């Protein structure tokens, strides 16, 4: 019997071993937001996980779910960009590939001139309307209610998200990558919130997979007050974390065997960062940040507890 025939006709024992060999587990990743610092944390955490677990390939997961900053990282992983490569692109702003775009923090600080100009231009009209409302009622109208419409002059965001969108578009347009959900070999879902309904929208799912990945990521990261809502197909979208922090259930519904979640938004430990009990010394912004972090972290804990009940095998 030749070696070729032996390969084509394995022994019964070898065939049995092959049938008994376990299939590779389906891996899912769910990445939360956290702004630029959150993105840096997630890149470092993923690099550590990738190095610590033999045989794990974070670029070969069955499904990636990303929100806000986590959406940017998820889009990179789904496109084959390793955590180490993302560290060079996002953190070190250095790359051995000249075709790669390099992230610059000032991209996030580009003023939303269009939004600011539009709101400023509305001031004369709104002021005239408010005065007319007050005067036509002979001064009997409540002054505050008459001028309430002036709130429409406030911008919905201070910074433009266009710099982030342009960076992602260039990064994902390199050969071998795709800025189109439908062109990916792996499932990528970026979550944003419909501003007018308050409902979550899963970009990358049927009906929402025609939107460029860079635009979906911009919408998912549009933090209210910082960035204006992103208009897509006549609808306005903001940060995907408004309803849930991780949206890990999306990955769990895809029948994954193992789910890796990374959430950088956790409360500060004052015993480590400050003198005991002195977190308030950081001022109002520190207090508000700690409050927000505690609220978000509690949502994650509640969500994880429910996942343990509803998906006991994962």
Question: What does this protein look like?
Answer:
By secondary structure, the protein is of the alpha/beta class. The chain has 13 helices and seven strands. It has helices spanning 3-8, 12-20, 35-52, 69-78, 83-91, 113-121, 123-135, 143-146, 162-171, 213-220, 248-252, 270-273, 284-310, and strands at 27-31, 63-67, 187-194, 200-203, 230-232, 235-239, 258-262. Helix 3 (35-52) links the parallel strand 1 (27-31) and strand 2 (63-67).
Summarize the structure.
It is built from 13 helices and seven strands.
Q: How many domain units?
A: 3
Provide the β-strand percentage band: 5-15%
Largest sheet: 7 strands, mixed
* Alpha-beta content class: alpha/beta
Q: How are helices and strands ordered from N to C?
A: HHEHEHHHHHHEEHEEHEHH
CATH superfamily name of the largest domain? Cytosolic phospholipase A2 catalytic domain
Please report the distance between the alpha carbons of the first and last residues: 46 Å
The DSSP helix count reads: 13
Oligomer: single chain
CATH names the topology of the largest domain as: Cytosolic phospholipase A2 catalytic domain
Unreliable residue runs: 1-8, 16-21
Strand runs, count: 7
Rg from alpha-carbon coordinates: 25 Å
CATH architecture of the largest domain: 3-Layer(aba) Sandwich
The CATH C-level name of the largest domain is Alpha Beta
Instruction: Specify the overall morphology.
Output: globular
User: Helical residue percent?
Assistant: 40-55%
- Mean pLDDT score, rounded? 88
């Amino acid at each position: 019997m030749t070696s070729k025939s032996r390969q084509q006709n394995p022994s019964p024992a070898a065939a049995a071993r092959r049938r008994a060999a376990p299939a590779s587990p389906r891996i899912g990743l769910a990445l939360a937001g956290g702004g630029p610092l959150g993105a840096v944390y997630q890149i470092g955490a993923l690099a550590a996980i990738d190095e610590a677990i033999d045989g794990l390939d974070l670029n070969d997961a069955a499904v990636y779910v990303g929100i806000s900053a986590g959406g940017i990282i998820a889009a990179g992983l789904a496109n084959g960009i390793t955590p180490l490569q993302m560290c060079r692109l996002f953190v070190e702003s250095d790359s051995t590939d000249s075709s790669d775009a390099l992230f610059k923090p000032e991209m996030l600080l580009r003023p939303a001139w269009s939004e600011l100009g539009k709101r400023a231009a509305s001031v004369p009209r709104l002021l005239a309307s408010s005065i007319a409302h007050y005067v036509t009622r002979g001064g009997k109208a409540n002054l505050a209610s008459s001028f309430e419409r002036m709130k429409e002059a406030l911008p919905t965001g201070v910074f433009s998200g266009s710099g982030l969108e342009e960076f992602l578009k260039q990064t994902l347009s390199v050969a071998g990558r795709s800025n189109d959900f439908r062109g990916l070999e792996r499932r990528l879902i970026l979550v944003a919130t419909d501003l007018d309904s308050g409902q979550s929208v899963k970009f990358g799912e049927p009906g929402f997979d025609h939107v460029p990945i860079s635009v979906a990521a911009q919408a998912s990261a549009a933090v209210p007050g910082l960035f204006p809502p992103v208009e897509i197909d006549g609808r306005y979208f903001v940060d995907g974390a408004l309803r849930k922090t991780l949206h890990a259930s999306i990955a769990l519904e895809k029948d994954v065997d193992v789910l890796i979640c990374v959430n950088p938004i956790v409360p500060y430990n004052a015993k480590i960062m400050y003198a005991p009990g002195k977190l308030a010394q950081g001022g109002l912004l520190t207090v508000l940040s700690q409050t927000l972090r505690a609220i978000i972290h509690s949502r994650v804990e509640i969500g994880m507890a429910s996942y343990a009940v509803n998906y006991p095998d994962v």
